[in-house]
């Protein structure tokens, strides 16, 4: 028999269905605090405290966003995230990490989280990241997920990339960087914007990590596809 889920619901009086979140966090005081704060913001929030239960609940497909800790009993956050992505769930995942090297490990594992937030974090920053993820999901839901530019085709829904007739395999981070460029094809996207959306506000590593991923994309796709605009950022060329 599964343990009960703690449910937090916003005050009544709104006709629109509130966004529903799942918090998977074993620090119970933190989980309850976050749930109360997000409920006050108007969201419906469920809370579980271990990875296996988190995977089961998130896999039900009823959530608009999952806030997922890394260090969890039963199944760690990396594995929960990877299992959800492998099963085809595209729910936005905000992963919580601690300042003890986990962030660097997350970079290497690339399990498909949409954003990272390093503990301790400001609640105001958390809410900002949550709203940004919801906005992004809403924009994607209202637009075609397939972007075609010359012989490049990027399906942001299926997370697949084709160059001509050949499918190109990208890591989660490589795809995320390409996605930032393809949705604004022909426009200059700054390194800071890519860092903010692909990594997160709390990333304090080398900002040149963006150049590493752009170089990888050029090798896998075509050297002239992504142009460096000196002092400004990068632009995906729309012609062949």
Trace the largest sheet across and list its strands.
Answer: 1-3-2-4-5-6
Ends: how far apart? 58 Å
Number of strands: 13
The helicity comes to 25-40%
- Amount of beta strand: 15-25%
User: What structural class is derived from the secondary structure elements?
Assistant: alpha/beta
Radius of gyration: 19 Å
Q: Looking at the structure, what is the overall shape?
A: elongated
Largest sheet: 6 strands, mixed
Mean of residue pLDDT? 82
Helical element count?
A: 8
The ordered string of helix (H) and strand (E) elements is: EEHEHEHEHEHEEEEHEHHEE
Low-confidence stretches: 11-15
Question: Could you explain how this protein is built, in words?
Answer:
The structure is a single chain. With 240 residues, the protein is an alpha/beta fold. The protein is 37% helix and 22% strand. The chain has helices at 28-40, 51-58, 77-86, 102-109, 123-141, 172-182, 191-198, 209-220; strands at residues 6-8, 20-24, 44-48, 65-69, 93-98, 115-119, 146-149, 152-155, 160-163, 166-168, 188-189, 226-229, 233-236. The chain has a 6-stranded mixed β-sheet with strand order 1-3-2-4-5-6. Strand 2, helix 1 (28-40) and strand 3 (44-48) form a beta-alpha-beta unit. Helix 2 (51-58) packs parallel to helix 3 and helix 6 packs across helix 8 (209-220). The longest helix has 19 residues, at 123-141. It is elongated, with a radius of gyration of 19 Å. The modification 4-aspartylphosphate is found at residue 69. Pfam families: Response_reg, Trans_reg_C.
């Amino acid at each position: 028999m599964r343990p009960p889920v703690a449910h937090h619901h916003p005050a009544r009086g709104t006709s629109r269905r509130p966004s529903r979140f799942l918090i998977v966090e074993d620090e119970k005081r933190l989980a309850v605090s976050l749930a109360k704060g997000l409920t006050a913001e108007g969201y419906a929030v469920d809370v579980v405290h271990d990875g296996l239960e988190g995977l089961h609940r998130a896999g039900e497909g009823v959530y608009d966003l999952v806030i997922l800790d890394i260090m969890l009993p039963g199944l760690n956050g990396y594995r929960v995230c990877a299992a959800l992505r492998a099963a085809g769930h595209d729910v936005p995942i905000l992963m919580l990490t601690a300042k003890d090297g986990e962030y660097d490990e997350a970079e290497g594992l690339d399990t498909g989280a949409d954003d990272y937030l390093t503990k301790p974090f400001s609640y105001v920053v958390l809410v900002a990241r949550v709203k940004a993820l919801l906005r992004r999901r809403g924009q994607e839901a209202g637009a075609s997920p397939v972007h075609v530019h010359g012989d490049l085709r990027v399906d942001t829904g299926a997370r697949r990339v084709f160059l001509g007739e050949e499918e190109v395999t990208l890591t989660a981070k490589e795809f995320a960087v390409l996605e930032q460029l393809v949705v604004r094809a022909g426009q200059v996207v700054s390194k800071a914007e890519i860092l903010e959306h692909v990594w997160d506000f709390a990333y304090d590593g080398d900002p040149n990590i963006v150049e590493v991923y752009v170089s990888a994309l050029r090798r896998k796709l075509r050297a002239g596809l992504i142009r460096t605009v000196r002092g400004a950022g990068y632009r995906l060329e729309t012609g062949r």
